[in-house]
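thoughts on these tokens:
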Amino acid sequence: MELADGRMRDLRLLVPNSPGSGYDMTAHVVGEVLDATGLTRGVEVFNVVGDAGVTGLHHLITEGGNDRLLASMGLGLLGGVIANQADSLLGETASIARLVSEPEAILVPANSVYRDLGDLVRDWKAHPSTVLVGGGSAPGGPDHLAPMLIAEYVGLIPKSVNYIAHDGRGRLMGSLLNNKVTFAVAGVGEFAHQLRTGEFRALAVAAYERVAGLDIPTTHEFGINIELFNWRGLIAPPGLSLTQRAALEGVIASLVATPQWKQHLAENNWQDAHLSAAQFHAFLNTEAARVRRVLGGLGVA
């Protein structure tokens, strides 16, 4: 339905994992900006949790033809469905837009004995079973892929990595604060507040170049030539008409042009990674092939 002036209303944003996750943060920011700018009215964000995002994806597909529903997704969902041999489900959905990206960061609590990535890697190589790696991704997601790729690069067998998956950002934060994991891997924007307050320290970001505005070294600076950026975007249910898809695409294209959106990008250390629907569809196909190659090499898929 639309308002008298043509604005969209009753838009719902599905988050396929728990509150507090990167998908959840992105969806809430999208909803907030859409409402604040008057592009839409009455945006609702809701969570459908389970099975590395596959449960949420199933929910989206069952809403075929619903042009007032979007789902937040990203590399984690893509990796999760591939790891679970369910990537055909993603092919049923409609690509709307890629929105943001952020490099994966290596995080430790403020009281950690590790002052830089080099120290951590030396202990990790010497005692791989005692170094506990936390992430908010299921196997195949970015928080899982980044430490696996780093381990492989420094000569560790990926299967020796003691990776502990957490259901989203909230539980991962608790594990890191309580020293239940040695280090955590997460998108640099997910713990921006804890980095600013000093609760956590970032030893490195998995990138070739430093992130503007953040005084964090890169893995490249420690001789580890690994780059892994998480990204997030929006997809819609199957069965939409061209007119329905164009309306959703137009609203999101207007969203990313607003100063409010750009302000949130800066506040969350997100990089503008906007792609149109057609560009995003092509990107997803290319990214899926890349993730399959990586997971196959790691023995995950």
Residues 277-297 form the longest helix (21 residues). The two ends are 42 Å apart (CA to CA). The longest strand covers residues 94-109. The chain has a mean pLDDT of 91.
